[in-house]
Write a structure and sequence with these properties.
The complex is a heterodimer. Chain A is of the alpha/beta class. Chain A contains six helices and twelve strands. Chain A has a five-stranded parallel β-sheet, sandwiched between helices. A four-stranded antiparallel β-sheet of chain A has the order 6-7-8-9, covered by helices on one side. In chain A, helix 4 crosses helix 5, helix 4 packs across helix 6 and helix 5 crosses helix 6. Chain A is elongated and about 60 Å long. The two termini of chain A are about 30 Å apart. Classes of the chains: A alpha/beta, B alpha+beta. The interface between A and B is medium-sized, with 25 and 36 residues.
Chain lengths: ~220, ~425
């Protein structure tokens, strides 16, 4: 189940989006639109989605929140959806910083489609998608990985690391950025953890499927071809 | 439900896993397992599974107590040696019903000491070279027979066991335990497999998994794999050399590109701590009566407390073949054997090293080859080692009084039983003579 962080000016404005998101299978978490971008306690991994509620007098604060989300380096690649009342559509150009915009009132079905569009803009894929790279198939809905039809049994963090790299092919990630984006900010284990997990994933994929390339003194890159 | 829980539940469903084994070890490091059907898994992840905590106290049990085994979802792994009906395993942390950790849980004890290292900004990295023997499964009370006459590094078709090692490595890699190297050892039928370094908790889990995987592969061939430290009088025993380093924010804290010695100041202090407390560690690094037969009979097994870069039988070797490589800076502790409880072993060795750092221990001079007669020696037998452990403030601080007491009770019982046995040695030497 993926987290969604909801930025709302007041608790009651988060109720409906939280219900709809829960219906869609997400784990919603409410944050102050003016406050910290991350939940208390050091925060965890970036969520699957940020959902910003722009309503009434707080529309300006919502616009500012969107700007802060976009400028936060550790949250690049976080899909942003903003919910706006019809009267607030002209609140500011910042609304267009969101990957997708949804006008209230809306249904769970529409929300699902909007989220899918936002996620596709950012990742090129959706949660329910199947990632195919050569003989390697990763089913993001069922967490199953196959090579040439044979299942490969990964431990959870090995899977998460492979998923992250395979859904961002061709890009080089430092060990530190992999730590914060795959393990989360609060994870204590040091950059060594990344090397150890890369080695485990490589061992399971086998040498003939060695798509994870070490980029000397930088980090790792997943090659899609 | 947390993402790692849903990962486990979904995988079990998708892969058709029927049973999940919940693994934990007793104070002696012996693997215990509770199998639960897949239908019970969700409840087990949420609430844990109740068991009798005396199962963790080794063979010297006192009375029952209720404890809860909480499976660690991040250790979920399908077992590769059961291709027909899929079985998976998870390691457990054992806690009291109120959620506090159970004093007899070795895994929690290691986590605690790792937490102390983390407070200082370090993770403890461990690599392991594990030796073991393959025997024909004894029948009719005959002595186990070594399988082959292959020599060191012999990989010709004559080496009956190279296929064995290949299959073992495949299993290990399928379980997320990457292997660095493997070869035939000095003694007949003796093998060594080197595991790539990882954090100490993962390595302790890996050693536990390794011992089972090797035994499973052997069993497929009708053989018996043993991690007994010294199975044959006239041949070398099986050790588990462990390679240790601390990593902090700025990488390997043992690395000193321009330092005076082979390691950084901090590395020297850590090493000094391990050497200063070597006697107290021995009951854990070498926990069985038989462990001391390996230490007593040469074959490069360490007997004296010293360190070296180039010598061969010191307690600690500081590898110096790649001084410029940061990741290679480490110490190699050569006393542990593969039948130890890896959780307690790593916990106590780390605690000794940290104490060296915290109290600024001075490193004694390097010993090049033959240790001087005056060098401190390791305990000669289990009784001496247990006495040192029992009286060790370090062990009690690191592992807790109750765990130490349980451990000591087991070891004293083992010694008492051993002391009362008439050995082959005595019959050979005395039966006719006297």
């Amino acid at each position: 189940m993926s987290d969604v962080w909801i930025y709302a000016p007041a608790p009651e404005q988060a109720v409906i989006p939280a219900q709809l998101l829960a219906e869609l299978g997400y784990a919603p978490r409410r944050l102050e639109v003016n406050g910290s971008l991350r939940p208390d306690g050091g925060g965890s991994r970036p969520p699957a989605l940020a959902f910003v509620v722009a309503s009434g007098a707080s529309a300006a604060a919502a616009c500012e929140c969107l700007v802060r989300l976009r400028e936060d380096e550790a949250l690049t690649d976080l899909p942003l959806v903003v919910a706006v009342e019809p009267e607030q559509l002209e609140s500011g150009p910042e609304l267009l910083d969101a990957h997708e915009l949804i006008v209230t009132p809306y249904s769970a079905e529409e929300l699902r489609a909007r989220i899918a569009r936002a996620r596709r803009q950012v990742h090129g894929i959706e949660d329910g998608d199947v990632v195919r790279i050569g003989a390697l198939v990763i089913n993001l809905a069922t967490y199953q990985v196959h090579i040439g039809g044979q299942p490969i049994d990964f431990a959870y963090m090995e899977y998460e690391l492979l998923k992250f790299l395979a859904t961002h092919p061709g890009r080089v990630f430092s060990r530190e950025s992999l730590l914060s984006r795959v393990w989360g900010y609060d994870y204590y284990g040091g950059a060594r953890t990344v090397d150890v997990h890369v080695r485990r994933v490589r061992a399971k994929l086998g040498p003939e499927h060695g798509r994870i390339t070490t980029v000397r003194s930088v980090g790792y890159r997943f090659d899609d071809d | 439900m947390t993402p790692d829980h849903s990962y486990v539940l979904r995988t079990v469903e998708e892969r058709g896993v029927r049973f999940v084994r919940l693994w934990f070890v007793d104070v002696l490091g012996l693997l215990k397992s509770i199998a639960i059907p897949a239908s019970e898994l969700e409840a087990a992840l949420e609430e844990g599974v109740g068991l009798d905590g005396s199962a963790l106290e080794g063979s010297a049990r006192l009375h029952e107590r209720d404890v809860i085994a909480h499976p660690d979802p991040r250790t979920f792994q399908v077992l590769p040696w059961r291709p027909g009906s899929l079985v998976a395993r998870m390691f457990c942390d054992v806690r009291m019903p109120d959620g506090s950790s159970f004093a007899g849980d070795s895994r929690s004890a290691l986590r605690r000491v790792l937490g102390q290292a983390a407070d200082l900004g370090f993770t403890f990295q461990v690599g392991a070279e594990i030796e073991f023997f393959l025997f024909d499964e004894p029948s009719d009370g005959e002595l186990p027979r070594p399988l082959d006459d292959g020599a060191y590094f012999d990989l010709t078709p004559l080496d009956a066991a190279s296929d064995f090692r290949r299959r073992t490595i495949e299993y290990l890699e399928q379980m997320g335990i990457p292997v660095k190297a493997s070869h035939h050892e000095v003694a007949p039928s003796q093998h060594e497999i080197q595991l790539q370094h990882t954090d100490a908790l993962s390595m302790a889990d890996a050693v536990t998994t390794f011992r089972l995987a090797v035994k499973e592969v052997a069993r497929e061939d009708g053989l018996h794999a043993t991690f007994m430290p010294k199975p044959l009088d006239e041949h070398s025993g099986s050790g588990m050399h462990v390679h240790l380093s601390l990593f902090g924010d700025r990488g390997n804290a043992f690395h000193a590109p321009d330092g005076d010695g082979p390691l950084s100041e901090l590395g020297h202090a850590f090493l000094a701590g391990v050497l200063a407390h070597a006697g107290e560690l021995t009951a854990v690094t070498n926990q069985w009566v038989n462990s001391y037969k390996r230490l007593a009979t040469g074959f490069e097994a360490p007997e004296q407390v010293c360190w070296t870069r180039h010598g061969r039988s010191a307690l600690v070797r500081v590898p110096s073949n790649r001084p410029g490589k940061e990741a290679a800076a480490r110490i190699e502790l050569r006393s542990p054997d593969p039948s130890c409880n890896p959780y307690l072993c790593f916990a106590l060795v780390l605690a000794a090293g940290l104490r060296g750092i915290e109290r600024g221990y001075q490193l004694p001079p390097e010993v090049d080859d033959v240790p001087p007669a005056a060098a401190t020696r390791l305990p000669e037998d289990l009784r001496e080692a247990t006495d040192l452990f029992d009286a060790s403030e370090l062990a009690r601080d690191a592992l807790g009084d109750r765990l130490c007491d349980w451990y000591v009770r087991n070891k004293r019982a083992e010694w008492a039983e051993y002391r009362g046995k008439v050995t082959e040695f005595e019959r050979h030497r005395f039966l006719r003579l006297l």
